[in-house]
Design a protein that fits this description.
The protein has 125 residues and is mostly helical. The chain has one domain. Helices cover 73% and strands 0% of the residues. Helix 4 runs antiparallel to helix 6.
Length: 125
């Protein structure tokens, strides 16, 4: 793992911990982030596409064991941002769509898998 992946793991863990602290009530969320769910899903789709392509580029010449190890930060760290962003929106919006973080993670995962599954199609591998 290189410095970028370590930074990704650190930032993802911080987002996951803050989102969990807001979720269980340890911290009082300000509820002032004007984030429409459509923007959250758009961000999740873009992040999934970027992270999928980043993982493919980063593991192009890596052995299979290292590919699996690098999958953890690229796939599990970014969804923490979605849950954290959704924890900071007004409570009325959270009540309307309580599973927005989960839906954004699903959109992220689908768009992450597109470049991962297509990586050998155009190279003939």
């Amino acid at each position: 793992m290189k410095r970028f992946e370590l930074g990704l793991v650190g930032a993802g863990a911080a987002c996951w911990l803050l989102a969990a602290a807001y979720g269980v009530g340890l911290l009082a969320a300000p509820g002032s982030l004007p984030l429409v769910p459509r923007w959250l899903f758009t961000f999740a789709v873009a992040a999934g596409w970027l992270c999928g392509n980043g993982w493919v580029a980063r593991t192009r010449t890596a052995p299979p064991a290292q590919r699996r190890l690098l999958l953890v930060p690229w796939l599990l760290a970014p969804p923490g941002v979605f849950f954290l962003l959704w924890a900071l929106v007004p409570p009325a919006w959270q009540a309307e769509l309580p599973i927005a973080g989960l839906l954004a993670t699903g959109a992220f995962a689908v768009l992450f898998l597109v470049p991962v599954t297509l990586k050998g199609v155009f190279t003939g591998k």
